Amino acid sequence: MSGVEQYCNQHDYNLIISSLDGNEERLEQNIQTLIQKQVDGLLLMYSDSRHSFLKQLDVALPMVIMDWWPTALSADKIYENSELGAYLATKCLIEQGHKAIAIITGNLNKSLAQNRLQGYKKALNEHQLAIRDEWIIESHFDFEGGVEGMKKLLQAGKRPTAVFACSDTIAVGVYQVAWQNGLRIPQDLSVIGYDDITLAQYLAPPLTTIHQPKAELGKLAVETLLERINPPIKANNLFC
């Protein structure tokens, strides 16, 4: 979000932020309010696939969608390639010699979580490693999600030797539970995260993580939206 705001300011545009918290009725109301305020364009960052309103959203405004579930909406779509990132994270663990690799995902109603799960499965399949249901833990993209997910893994029976945490915040929770249970990282358990947040380098040991180009994505989203505002351009699918 900071990248989006920065590039809006550089182009003398004001950014109006509307938070939804997964509320479909609120989403519809907020979009209608923004239209009434005669905004120049919409930048939508919403990854929950459940809401029917999204499938019939039709507004006569330039619109860019970031990290959204695949949709036929008439707009530019900018995707962070989560599946590739997750594939590379899992492959890194495999190349270190791990064969028992678990994953702790975010809420699987979110496209990011599903894409990262697919990348994990792809890497395991390519190396002919078993995909064990008890090592696929659905949780939340936060510290508590990592704590809950790691506790479930330790209760599942055979313990994996490595964990792919689908966000660095999840990984922090994994570190905490590992420490509480006397597991050393990386001697007893290898962990890899996703997002490359600042905190990752200050963990002990520093967290190996997949970098997500948030600033670049924000810049690309704003530049694409401004091009659609003046002059409008044909919709494209852009990957970063």
Topology:
Blueprint: H1 2-10, H2 24-36, E1 42-45, H3 52-55, E2 63-66, E3 76-79, H4 82-95, E4 101-105, H5 111-126, E5 136-138, H6 143-155, E6 162-165, H7 168-180, E7 190-195, E8 208-211, H8 214-229, E9 237-239
Parallel strand pairs: 1-2, 2-3, 3-9, 4-5, 4-6, 6-7, 7-8
How do you describe this structure in short?
41% of the residues lie in helices and 15% in strands. It has 240 residues and is of the alpha/beta class.
Describe this structure in words.
By secondary structure, this protein is α/β, with parallel strands linked by helices. It folds into two domains: 1-80 and 215-229, Rossmann fold (3-Layer(aba) Sandwich), CATH 3.40.50; 82-211, Rossmann fold. The chain is built from eight helices and nine strands. α7 links the parallel β6 (162-165) and β7. α1 crosses α8, α4 (82-95) packs parallel to α5 and α6 crosses α7 (168-180). It is elongated, with a radius of gyration of 20 Å. InterPro entries: LacI/GalR-like_sensor, Peripla_BP_I. Keywords: DNA-binding, Transcription, Transcription regulation. Residues 93-234 form the Transcriptional regulator LacI/GalR-like sensor domain.
